[in-house]
Amino acid sequence: MPSPLFLFLLTLALLIFAALPGGAQSRNAAGETPLFTSDVPPEALAELIAGRMSDEQALAQTFMLGWVGAEPSPLIMDWIRERNIGGVKIFGWNTEDTRKLAETVGALQRAALGGAFGAPLLVATDQEGGWIRHVKGDTSETPGNMAIGASGYPRDAYLSGYYIGRELALLGINMNFAPTVDLYTNRESALIGPRSFTSDPVQAGILGAAFARGQEAAGVMPTAKHFPGHGDTSLDSHGVLPRIAVSFETLWDRELVPYRILAREGVPAIMSGHLAFPNTPAASTPASLSPWFLTGILRGRMGFRGLIITDDLMMNGAAASAGSLSQAAREALLAGNDIIMFSKTPALDDPVWTSLLAAMRREPAFRERVLDAARRVLEAKLDWLRRENAVPYIPDMRRVEELLPSSEGASFFLGLAARSVTVVWGGAGGPAPGAASGGLSGEAGAGENLPAAANPAAAIPLSPEGAGKVLLAGQYGDFFTAGRAAYPGAAAYWYSLARGADDLAWFARQADTIIFCISGSEGVSLVQALRNLGKRVILFSVLSPVYLDEVPWADGALAVYSYARESFIAGFSVLAGRIPAQGRLPFGETAAP
Prior knowledge:
six-stranded mixed beta sheet, TIM Barrel, elongated, Rossmann fold
């Protein structure tokens, strides 16, 4: 911490700066110098501002709140105007109208900039790409992380982060809770699935670091998640606290490898997950509330210097474990988190605030931890929000209307989708039908582009002329649109459990080839009705391809990793033989060592 003499001299310099010609322009309406705008290095200025803050102001910098509705609620505005909270989190329920979202971000920032120190908000969201896209409206739908893992190119990760970040920056969103570097360790992990790049720790770290660099180039602060790793559980921490029974040695050599890489690469923020690891010294305490994990391992052993942010503390994985939301918040700060995040806006006098403020006043050690957290938040803002390519506080509505969605980004994402399409079996040069019955552990020869004679049983590619009468069976509008473009005249069957397997079988008997879109267990149960009909069956997997394990008898199977329009176009382009398959399954056998 700087010496009292250093702080005195810095204060004196700032007073002189304010007295110089033009210095008055950096004063706020109350006549106080808004120190955030001062031309002082981030670390020193963060120390000075934190030192001038009241307990309430310091505690408020650690709060990141969400709200319900498209427009900012009066309560969230009260938290910004009266408390000067550090940040807000944008969820999917705030974002259907892109223009309204941009106007909302501008209103929130104007309120924040009127505060005592003129410090803007961190405005965060979850825009991972693929399946998780909280900011909807006119933003791009993308092939997602597992598609990046299937392509295998770090440049695809970098440009995904860049184009996603550039769209967020137009809307005034300066922080993104991505990349997700959870490994696809547990194949039954419905929460992670295609949000993961791969099951390979080093590859996940490389792709995650490239994705983060792309976001940084767009001016957006990346946040790696969910530390120390959410991939080895089939449970969802929104509802329960997952307990992952692996040793710390396994964690260190597997789930923690991406974070070790990212910490060395200087990623500015990491999100802590509500996950318990009973075979480590943290025992049953969630990692998000564990000093051993956050202070000991992440900061101590890994040397991470950036912000640590909790996942939503209103998730049962945190609140139920701590006994109350207030206790979870206190434990989270003591453990080493710098920002505590809440998906909903509490009342101004909620115990989550009043109890923390009371703890600051009676516990010197807790007060010092909060002041340290506030200083870290301020330093991150001073570093990121004053850069040459910083995200504007107030979105330019003309640019929002002109540049969203990004035509340049759309072209890139279509190319990524094409590079990631994976023929799992039944392709030229790949294994014959049924080869996947032992599990999706091979690479299926995808991308080798061998002549069809190399595999007499090859079902992929399938030309429109050789397909005969085609039935498209699926649940996505873009699947049918892309399928009919590839196979003109194909019949369409929108399947559901309510319609039943017999109904599907009746339509299938009228066709020569059935292209069945499978994205979950519902499809697995229905597709069995096609097994003994003597028809050509090709599986078109969307999202995670693990469900293909249950249908090894199909003639062919290919995988795309998103339900974005571009993924369907790319998948059918490979299936019809217009482009070669280049993707490889981004995971193999994933049993714990």
